[in-house]
UniProtKB/TrEMBL annotation:
This is Class I SAM-dependent methyltransferase. It holds the Pfam family Methyltransf_3. Transmembrane segments: none annotated. Its EC number is 2.1.1.-. It comes from the Bacteria. Keywords: Methyltransferase, S-adenosyl-L-methionine, Transferase. Gene3D superfamilies: Vaccinia Virus protein VP39. GO terms for molecular function: O-methyltransferase activity; S-adenosylmethionine-dependent methyltransferase activity. InterPro entries: Cation-dep_OMT, SAM-dependent_MTases_sf, SAM_O-MeTrfase. The lineage of its organism: Bacteria, Pseudomonadati, Pseudomonadota, Gammaproteobacteria, Candidatus Berkiellales. One of its GO terms (biological process) is methylation.
Length: 219
């Protein structure tokens, strides 16, 4: 969830390239478009929303990994959750974790409107507590919550992830600040990036999509 002051990786490109990229990407649903509009009007935090390109990337990764049990740390208004759920089989399950009840209220509204909403269970509260309490083996996890706890979330999720499963980390570049971290959030994200890179149990690749997407695969 990048802050307003951050420059996303996509902003280094001109408007024509950004438009071209979006047009080359499969269209989002009408429901997702409406969710983006409501997020903009109700929260004034549209930059915290993953957006159409990243949303489609999540859909593809879930589909390619044949995931059935998924975890999302940081629901916000539910845009990424709906993208993940769209690629799950009918019996699939996404547990999405959110601390802010106002964001969760918007998300649940759109989950109820979606044909994939029955696959999603929204858990309100501290993410670390919810992760510890979930007795589930996950195929796929998306981390996009409070940045200072990124290393903790990685440590909690990895033992619950099946071999071959994926962890996707959003804001992995944090506006470029991870190169020479100063603030706490940048230090924490950099710490996770290095932890995963040096972990012999996983393999990694960093993508410069939006504010950086880190793909981690458990061996």
């Amino acid at each position: 969830m990048p802050r307003k002051s951050k420059m996303l990786a996509e902003e280094f490109f001109n408007d024509a390239i950004n438009t071209y990229v979006e047009h080359a990407t499969s269209d989002e649903s009408a429901l997702l478009k409406n969710l983006r509009i409501e997020t903009r009007t109700q929260t004034n935090m549209i930059n915290m929303l993953s957006g159409p390109v990243e949303g489609r990337l999540l859909q593809l990764l879930v589909s390619l990994s044949k995931a059935k049990n998924c975890l999302e740390v940081g629901t916000f208004t539910g845009y990424s959750a709906l993208n993940i759920a769209a690629s799950l089989p009918a019996e699939g399950k996404l547990y999405t974790l959110e601390f802010n009840p106002e964001y969760a209220k918007i998300a649940q509204k759109f989950f109820n409107l979606s044909p994939d909403g029955h696959k999603i269970e929204l858990l309100l509260g501290k993410a670390e507590d919810s992760i510890r309490n979930l007795d589930v083996q996950f195929d796929f996890a998306f981390i996009d919550a409070d940045k200072q706890n990124y290393p903790l979330y990685y440590d909690l999720i990895l033992p619950k992830l099946r071999s071959g499963g994926l962890i996707i980390v959003d804001n992995a570049l944090w506006g470029g600040e991870v190169v020479a971290p100063v603030e706490k959030q940048a230090h924490a994200i950099h710490a996770l990036n290095q932890k995963a890179k040096n972990d012999p149990h996983v393999e990694t690749v960093m993508l410069t999509v939006r504010d950086g997407i880190f793909i981690i695969r458990k061996k």
